[in-house]
Design brief:
InterPro entries: NAD(P)-bd_dom, NAD(P)-bd_dom_sf, NmrA-type_oxidoreductase. Pfam families: NAD_binding_10. It comes from Lactiplantibacillus xiangfangensis. This is Nucleoside-diphosphate-sugar epimerase. Helices cover about 45% and strands about 15% of the residues. The strands form 3 sheets. The protein has a 7-stranded parallel beta sheet, sandwiched between helices. The chain has a two-stranded parallel sheet with strand order 7-9. A two-stranded parallel sheet has the order 8-11. Helix 8 packs across helix 12. The longest helix has 15 residues. It is globular. It has 2 domains: about 140 residues, Rossmann fold, CATH 3.40.50.720; about 100 residues, UDP-galactose 4-epimerase, domain 1, CATH 3.90.25.10. The chain contains 12 helices and 11 strands. By secondary structure, it is an alpha/beta fold.
């Protein structure tokens, strides 16, 4: 059984490979990377490394030759080639290469999600469904690491603002999502859809968790309107377009798109998720 992981030099991909190697022989693990030089520095030398970019469908097909199970880690939006086109290249190449099963890192509740951030994932899920390949959608909610600026602010006793209202977000550590992805790849009979996320929490809840984790009580996270949130970012020197994107993410959170009421993540991991206070301390210690 040959296993391939795309975007393998990223933090997520590195964790997946490390987890796979606990069970799978290095000769059966294939890392698909854009930059072989980086791969030589960050990946085990015992595995196979194949070069291919999401913008190069023929190279992807060649890199996926002989692969039985493939973890497709979604690309980062905003590139010269659209994420939809990149993902179409990957799916087309996987099917042409004869890949038997594909696990895709998708977006929380992608079947009902409405936010702009979910659009490419909805598109990719449909591509994979229509391809005829066996699949699992790993619908990851939100990395707690995405909120590092809030964690650091609280740890330093500094106030912060948010525009997500009472919306709840299913935070979990990136490494927990990555280990779960590896475990799904190894399952004999994986589900078609996994809704991965931690216990849903609002920003107010997160602030209280930071206080418990740090022992500080000299800061507050204040709820503001989306317009006030964006204006504050711009006043702080942020580009208006980026401020708009971040404002959109806050609206997505307010709409509870990242509120996942599922125990799939803990079930696949085989143990409870890291307690939020411990997870906060882990991130702050990096």
């Amino acid at each position: 059984m040959k296993y391939a992981i795309s975007a393998a030099t990223g933090h997520f991909g590195q964790i997946v490979i490390k987890e796979l190697l606990k069970t799978v022989a290095p000769s059966d693990v294939i890392a698909i990377v854009r930059n072989p030089e980086k791969a030589a520095k960050v990946l085990p030398t015992t595995i196979t490394v194949r070069q291919a970019d999401y913008t190069d469908e023929p190279a992807l097909e060649q890199a996926l030759a002989g692969v039985d199970r493939f973890l497709f880690i979604s690309s980062v939006p905003g590139g010269a080639v659209s994420r939809e086109q990149q993902h179409q290249n990957v799916v087309t190449a996987a099917k042409a290469a004869g890949v038997g099963y594909i696990a895709y890192t998708s977006f929380a509740k992608a079947d009902t999600a409405k936010s702009a951030l979910s659009t490419d994932h909805v598109f990719t899920e449909k591509l994979i469904k229509d391809s005829g390949m066996a699949y699992s959608f790993l619908r990851n909610a939100w990395y707690l690491e995405n909120e590092t600026s809030y964690l650091q602010a609280g740890a330093a006793g500094k106030d912060a603002i948010y525009a997500a209202g009472d919306g709840k977000i299913s935070f979990a550590l990136e490494r927990e999502y990555a280990v779960a992805a590896a475990k799904v790849l190894l399952l004999a009979d994986p589900k078609a859809v996994y809704e991965f996320g931690g216990q849903p929490r609002s920003y107010a809840d997160l602030a209280q968790a930071i206080k418990r984790a740090t022992g500080r009580d000299d800061f507050q996270f204040k709820a503001v309107s989306p317009a006030e949130y964006q204006q504050a970012l711009i006043a702080g020197g942020m580009d208006a377009n980026l401020a708009s994107v971040l404002g959109g993410m806050q609206t997505m959170m307010a709409d509870n798109e990242l509120n996942v009421s599922s125990d799939d993540l803990a079930t696949v991991l085989g143990h409870p998720l890291t307690p939020i206070e411990t997870a906060i301390k882990e991130i702050l210690a990096r």
